[in-house]
Amino acid sequence: MRDGYAKDMVVNGGASEDQARAKAIKDVEQLFPGGRLSPEQSVFVIEVDGRPVGDLWVAEREGDLQHGLWIFDVHVNAAERGRGYGKAAMLHAEEEARRRGLDRVGLMVFGGNDVARNLYRSLGYVENAVFMSKPV
Description:
This protein is α+β, with helices and mostly antiparallel strands. Helix content is 36%, strand content 24%. It is built from 4 helices and 4 strands; from the N terminus they run H-H-E-E-E-H-E-H.
């Protein structure tokens, strides 16, 4: 997950490889102190017929403007994509939020990740903020 996050920061976020690697290491250590999940986090394995095809990582998160379930990562193995497993994982996140008594699910997606952004839009997610940059 850390390496994929760093790659996304380079490809879609405009970061250098060194910047992305350093930020990914720092962020993951903050989220997994000592390499362990904190109690409010959950990682679910997406399974089909008993075999893993991906994972979903969520946690309750207090934001500046809202409290809800935050999706840190939803990943479907490349060979399994396009079969509805990502959508099913997202719907599971919504069920998990309701189970925890939360009324909101949030996530961050890089602007260049059109496949993911289209999935989220199809499920009713709306953009709350857009960060933009331009190399000069």
